[in-house]
Amino acid sequence: MPEILGAKLMFTEEQKERLKQWSNVYGWSAEECTQAAEKDETLRRLLDVEMGTKGMPDEALAIREQITRIEVCHYHCKSSVERILQMVGEMRPSAALGCGDIEPHLADELRGIIAEAAAWVDGRTQDAGFLADVLGERTPAKQWLTACLCKTLAKQLERVQGDEPLPQPHWPTG
């Protein structure tokens, strides 16, 4: 957890370095990612889980690397998101595609996937649809990875969806 000095949150250098993995969402500088974390409780909770989980499997870290490359403007974003969810379910990393042109109906399709993924993270498997089977047993690493994916997509879709709130998991609660 970042330290609070006065009214400002202070992040360690290691925390700032970890926050840079959100650069495709918040901006390309460490400062932009840190400023985002100051304002965003979900981002801080995800950072806390990451910092507190020294035993995160290498496969989870490799999948997280693929999540950092997701961009909603890519023509194949939906299939990449589905592929990443399959990676999480199998805990077996592989490649996902990068940036390109956005499909007109992509935001609505991804909204449904995010809602089901967030439900799975929160333990509402009955609301997770087919993702309950794709993701399989809920483990801390899988929950963290899926929450990272939900947060990444929700933040990127914010630009496309405007004021309409996007689903995000409430895990970990705290």
Walk me through this protein's architecture.
With 174 residues, the chain is mainly alpha-helical. It has two domains: 1-52, no CATH class; 57-174, no CATH class. The chain contains nine helices and two strands, in the order E-E-H-H-H-H-H-H-H-H-H. It has a two-stranded antiparallel sheet with strand order 1-2. A hairpin with a 2-residue loop joins strand 1 and strand 2. Helix 5 (58-67) runs parallel beside helix 9, helix 6 packs parallel to helix 7 (106-121) and helix 6 (77-90) packs antiparallel against helix 9. The longest helix is centred in the C-terminal third of the chain and has 22 residues, at 140-161.
Keywords:
single chain, 174 residues, mainly alpha, two-stranded antiparallel sheet, 9 helices, 2 strands, 57% helix, 3% strand, globular
Largest β-sheet summary = 2 strands, antiparallel
- Strand count: 2
Spatial shape? globular
Number of individual domains: 2
Average residue-wise pLDDT: 81
CA-atom Rg in angstroms? 15 Å
Indicate the low-confidence ranges by residue numbers: none
Summed up:
The chain contains nine helices and two strands.
Q: Secondary structure elements and their pairing?
A:
Layout: E1 3-5, E2 8-10, H1 13-19, H2 23-26, H3 30-39, H4 41-52, H5 58-67, H6 77-90, H7 106-121, H8 131-135, H9 140-161
Antiparallel strand pairs: 1-2
Helix pairs in contact: 3-4, 4-9, 5-6, 5-9, 6-7, 6-9, 7-9
